[in-house]
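**User:** I keep going back and forth on a fold encoding question. It is easy to fool oneself when nobody else works the same problem. Could you pick a protein and write out its sequence and tokenised fold? Could you put it straight underneath, so I can go through it closely?

**Assistant:**
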Amino acid sequence: MAYGLVLLCQGLGHLIGPPMAGALKDRTGYWDAAFYVAGIWVVVSGLLVGVIPYTKNFRICGNAPLAKDAAGEPDPGIKIIIAH
């Protein structure tokens, strides 16, 4: 599901980005502005990725239980084997 969301975001960026770059070129007269704006958005996305660890177990809306609250304690009789 996460991969699908990534593809959705990329698709929106590919759909909206070129017309926005063309509009910036038309307003400013040169292409440099489009590259600067694209670079700014890369920096913003990097900053947002840095915020992710601080949002763990944080609910923005709704009242469903968090994953850590709904999981409960594991059964001591069950052995979990993790293959590498």
